[in-house]
Amino acid sequence: MNRVIIFDMDGTLIDSAKAICNTINYMREGLNMPKLFDEYIIEVINNPDKNFMIEFYGVEKISKNLAKIFEEEYQKNYFIHATIYQDALNLIEYLEQIGYKIAVASNAPNSSLELILSNLKILDKFEIVVGASDTMPPKPAPDMLNFIKDKLKKEAIFVGDSYKDFLAAQNANIPYINVNWGRKTQIPNSINCQNAQEVIENINSMCKFDTFII
Asked: What is the reported pTM?
């Protein structure tokens, strides 16, 4: 197949809301800041108009020491709380059988991605996993998606669950499919899918004129 299917991680592949919220509130407790409601944290993370560093910590950038503490707590909470969505697992298994390459583009710290995906026993499913770092800006910047396309030399389809994901796909000029099995968020002017079968049907429709590479 001459396509790569790129997945967002949180809310698309993995139900990680509790892990994320617990980590952010742990950091706020250490900074003597009050606890935030989970719903507010998830809304801020997925809103491209909000600066989550300012919203959560009141600063533009945290220190390297605090960043290290965050990543350690983040990984711990993922190991305890994060689970794979069954629809995501069904979709991955289908794409593997058909022969598509698959990859991950996540705003989670790049240094944590392989550990998280390995713990959930799905790391080996992906050709490339890319997360945010000092040299890789987070979505809605298109850099992650373009990096994966260029590395694999394939056209791409991006599967995500948020407006940030939608904008990243637009900025990279690639098709976008929004899944609702996590946050139930409908993205206007986008393909919104309730389950794996709907995603499969849309991918097949987009790729029906693709040629097979032998």
From this structure: 0.88
What is the Cα–Cα distance from 101 to 6, expressed in whole angstroms?
A: 9
pLDDT of 63 reads 86
Which residue positions in the chain have pLDDT lower than 70? Answer: 1, 209-214
pLDDT of residue 1: 64
Contact 130, 110 (CB under 8 A): yes
Burial 117-141 (b: 16+ CB within 10 A, else e): beebebeebbebbbbbeeeeebbbb
The pLDDT tens digits for 87-101 are 999 999 999 998 999
Contact of 207 with 3, CB cutoff 8 Å? yes
Instruction: Give me the amino acid identity at 43.
Output: E
CB 29 within 8 A of CB 35: yes
Rounded to 10 degrees, the C-alpha dihedral 141/71/185/105 comes to 40
Specify which residues 191 forms β-bridges with: 177
For every residue of the chain, DSSP letters joined together read --EEEEE-SBTTTEE-HHHHHHHHHHHHHHTT-----HHHHHHHHT-TTS-HHHHHHSSSS--HHHHHHHHHHHHHHHHHH-EE-HHHHHHHHHHHHHT-EEEEEEEEEHHHHHHHHHHTT-GGG-SEEEEEBTTBPPTTSSHHHHHHHHHHT-EEEEEESSHHHHHHHHHHT--EEEE-SSS-PPPTTSEEESSHHHHHHHHHHHTTTPPPP-
